[in-house]
Amino acid sequence: MTAPRRIAILVLDGFSNLTLAALIEPLRAANRMAGRPLFAWSVLSEGGSPVASSSNLRLEADAAMATAGETDDLYVVASYEAEARATPGVRRFLRAAARRGAVIAGLESAPYVLALAGVLDGHRATTHWEDLRDFAERFPAVTAVPDRFVVDRRRITAGGALPTLDLMLDLLRRDHGLSLALAVSSTFLYEGSHPGHDPQHMVAAGRLAWQDPLLVRAIRLMEANIEAPLPVEAIAAELGIGPRALLQRFRATLGTGPKAYYAELRLALARRLLENTDRPVNDIAADCGFASGSALARAFRIRYGVNPARARRGGG
After folding, report:
1. pLDDT of the chain, 316 residues: tens digit per residue
2. What are phi and psi of 146, to 5 degrees?
3. CB count, 10 Å around CB of 114?
4. Which of 10, 60, 102, 142 has its CA 20 to 30 A from that of 66?
5. Is residue 106 within 8 Å of residue 164, measured between CB atoms?
6. Rg for the chain (alpha carbons), in Å?
7. Are the C-beta atoms of 278 and 257 separated by less than 8 Å?
8. Which of 99, 93, 129 is nearest to 113 (CA)?
9. In angstroms, how far is CA 263 from the centroid of its own chain?
């Protein structure tokens, strides 16, 4: 009998519970469906201490990363403040794993950690869509793509929780066949798996895709034009309807107009960038389609009740 594939999971403080579950649960289900241990995994933290998720749930680690034995795959799970978690020790650990030839994966915001360690240089990679532009600018030696997940030789990246589930199902299909992948997918009643090359979207359309496909097209146009927002009239013309008809469809389905919805998308992105990067407010304003940092600050205070500087300190 073939030995189980050895997987180490380095979990960093502030991680997403859902992303970690999307990684581990398919492994557990695959072992159960196969009737034998295809995978064996252990959870690591930097020092062996418990780690707290973004919702403050505590996770006990099996071991400190320094005491971990050799593994076939190393997965890193990170979410908020990923760069702060990329300590010198974590970077050395990743570089040592790369020298051993391990497959190294970064999930959600963990591609930042991998890139800071230098183990993504020369590879294609993705990260959460809100951070993708910043990631591309920060790491020019990495080819950043907006895919849900990327498998490039011995480097793997995924943009979030559901892309991680799609990734695990895809890896199961590649290594153990379509039948097992479908069986695992059925365990979670998950029928909407996506290939890795599908793009990430700011808004998950879900039921809206069949309720009003034209509205989804309008939202996708907004997502594609954040830095230089399109006039509502231009969006309507692209869809082949009038501005008034577009306004009526937005209000009937989403309870708001297209202009307000567009502004909400841009402000949500600005908030994410403020909370998770140290980029200047003026740069963030430009990336999110605001004429100046002061224009962003005015809109931000109206929407969130705090100024951008306070949001950056975590006070929002």
Report:
1. 689 999 999 999 999 999 999 999 999 999 998 899 999 999 999 999 999 999 999 999 999 999 988 899 999 999 988 888 999 999 999 999 999 999 999 999 999 999 999 999 999 999 988 788 889 989 999 999 888 899 999 999 999 898 999 999 999 989 998 888 888 888 887 765 555 554 554 444 445 555 678 888 898 898 889 899 999 999 999 999 999 999 998 888 888 899 998 998 888 888 878 877 778 899 999 999 999 999 999 999 998 888 888 887 554 4
2. -85, 25
3. 31
4. 142
5. no
6. 21
7. no
8. 93
9. 22
Rounded to two decimals, the pTM is 0.70
Backbone phi, psi, residue 268, to 5°: -65, -40
CB 315 within 8 A of CB 300: no
* Residue 150 structure tokens: 């990327």
Place of tokens 């290594």: 175
3-state secondary structure of 74: strand
Q: How far apart are CA 34 and CA 18, in angstroms?
A: 24
